[in-house]
């Protein structure tokens, strides 16, 4: 598994944030870092945090979806009690964020963020709205494929994976530098969920399955 490089010229934001010098080793040891970092506990979560469609007074606009899967290690063992966070654009391709100036409508009933803890089998499940594509000014006529951002925390704040999940058959894949920054096609395929009829709920929501394998799922560039 080859992760995207920190510096990928086609993805212009990496020019600003990729490290240009050798890392400076912190004076704090691992225990000290964990003591000074945020702590996430079970009491911080609410059962409704995993349903992005029921956070406001009304129903959000768009195609309701269920995204479910497992967080696993490379040996296929479930990762229990991992904090999984998601954030995404709405059905029109706009984030509920002050810096997003895409001239698409905001949805007052959708803010696009959720979280949950994996169960004993490493399973997570979110209910959401399928996000729309959006322009991002990285290059002329640049559009991001529909995607959901995922963040997975381990047993400490210093253990974190940030990645993106895409939907099958998107014609924008070949034109997206973030997707193309993953060198091998087989690794890019790991970022694409699959439609699953068993996860789909009749007359309510389409279902998708996507597993996150720590060490194999490409991290965000």
TrEMBL record:
EC number of the protein: 1.13.11.3
MF (Gene Ontology): protocatechuate 3,4-dioxygenase activity
Cited InterPro entries: Intradiol_dOase_C, Intradiol_dOase_core, Intradiol_RC_Dioxygenase, PCDO_beta_N, Protocat_dOase_b
Residues of the Intradiol ring-cleavage dioxygenases domain: 67-95
Class of this enzyme: oxidoreductase
Keywords (A to Z) from UniProt: Dioxygenase, Oxidoreductase
Lineage top rank: taxon: Bacteria
Record carries keyword Oxidoreductase: yes
SUPFAM superfamilies linked to this entry: Aromatic compound dioxygenase (SSF49482)
Coiled-coil residue windows: none
Keyword Repressor: no
Gene3D superfamilies, per the entry: Aromatic compound dioxygenase
Pfam families from the UniProt entry: Dioxygenase_C, PCDO_beta_N
Homology family: Belongs to the intradiol ring-cleavage dioxygenase family.
Name of the protein this chain belongs to: Protocatechuate 3,4-dioxygenase subunit beta
Organism in which the protein naturally occurs: Actinomadura rugatobispora
